[in-house]
Amino acid sequence: MSALTLRLPDDKHARLRALAQSRGTSVNRLLDEVTTLLLAEFDAETRFRLRAGRGVSKAERGIALLDKASGK
Q: What pLDDT sits at residue 21?
């Protein structure tokens, strides 16, 4: 496990501490949860962009398959 030093204005730190306390957790755990959510969002976006990139040159084939499926 690694340690991270984060510099925050005092008022923001106080608000984070109050938020953590209201959720019954520590500031450390709260920030761990937030980073987990942000990383999951980043991973999902990365996967989406990779999949979208693979389909860029296949638009005509996709439209043809849709037409075929609809009976056109």
A: 98
